[in-house]
Amino acid sequence: MKRALALTGAVAAAFTLAACGGGGDNGGGNGEPSGPAQTGGTLRYGLSLAPTCSDPAQSATNQTIYVTRQIVDSLVDQDPDTGQLKPWLADSWTVSPDAKSFTFHLRDGITFSDGTPLTADSVRKNFDAIVALGGAKAPLGASYLAGYIGSTVVDPHTVRVDFSGPNAQFLQATSTPQLGIQSDATVAKTADERCVGTNIGSGPFTYTEWKQNASATLSKRSGYAWGSAVFASQGEAYLDKIVFTVVPESGVRTGSLASGQLDAISDALPQDVPQIESGGGRVQFTANPGVPFGLQVNVTRGPLRDAAVRAALVPAINRKELVDTVLGPQFKVATSVLASKTPGYVDLSSRVKYDPEAAKKLLDQAGWVPGADGIRVKDGQRLTASVIFAPVFAGNQAILELTQQQLRAVGFDLRLEPLSVAESNVRQNNKDFDFDYYNSTRADGDILRTTFAVDQRNLNARGPAEPLDTLLSQQLSATDPAARAKVIGDAQSAVLDQGLWIPTIELSQAIGVGKNVAGVKFEASARLQFHDTWLKR
Known about the structure:
This protein is an alpha+beta fold. The chain contains 16 helices and 27 strands. It is globular.
């Protein structure tokens, strides 16, 4: 345990998380009901996008994780204010000096909602099952378990997880819902069977209804008594139920909250704030850690094979105009390949800055000449590429339309291809795109490895490259937080050097909350946790 405390304390020192997490305000606070928490009631929540799967291990979008996070507990939790790792299912843990072996000691008396005990063997079966699901079905969980040799049941409450190489990111990964622990009966099912709302976890809520693409209903878990050390209390949740409904139209969500038909909603944009506040509600914001929104480049496609073209795109984008025009002051421009709230973030704003003349010069030097319509050409090829994107964030379409105008000003023709989440996943898996526009959230710099490493998803479709792949591997071996942060910083520069990611804006979660709702909290990766939420009646 001494090893665990030393490691987590050092990790916390390396974090620079904004103070918008697990405290009383949790990103908002003005107008939140005060007084002792009240039990009972149903929270009606409006999602902006349909959840894709009821399985936490297969969850990827924020709207899906808002639901799945509530039914599953994790081995550890991460304090959103400090970044420290805190006990949850495991009350202590140790890490081998080479970061290849992690041993977790589970709390006594934990059960799944079907009454079966949660044991060390349950943890083993969960991790084995995630590896079996693979990167296509469980891309995040599988990436966290890269190099997984297996888990050993030391005794009914102790499990050791072993990797073939150093894996310094794994401890933080065990705080994510993707590595949350589900019952033996659940993990024995096929990937598709795990997506229909029958998942059994040990969390504070259980599924009572799942209607694909429409709604999900959760009920309080009676007898829950092993809440995270981050929670305000460790006992049962206050709410009796949470009903998630899909309301894709922003105006309808806002109007439903203002009129009292919904109690909380996703994706409340700055222009919605006056209407929400006029009904006595508030908007809570928190910045997402991880990879900010940006254009991931398929380096095998058309003019994007030209490194000079990729380099020219970075200064061609006016990020401040994107924020000021489409979003608002609660959002930040992206200044690196990591968002500023992420451990290991390095400010590269001197390189990620708007300079259209520099962009034009790079293209001129590379032989791309303006054509009659202003779009550049070289050897008979027009400087054009398309970008695929899904409506996972309400501002995506408008941001890309403005980006399209900005790039056209330097002679680049960007064509927009809006897709559903399912269509986008297929195109991603097949690497069938020029640009892919998205963000990825995680409160650990290892997200660079899972996003860019040649042996991970590698949506850039590139071959091995030095020094990037070496750096992404080295950070897994660095158990000293300062040393690891240095490697992660170097990796951010290497991604920019190769033109693999064109950053645009940092995502913030903006949640509209009604006047009678208290304790809606963001966890460390900016996803919602409803254990402490209550309704004033």
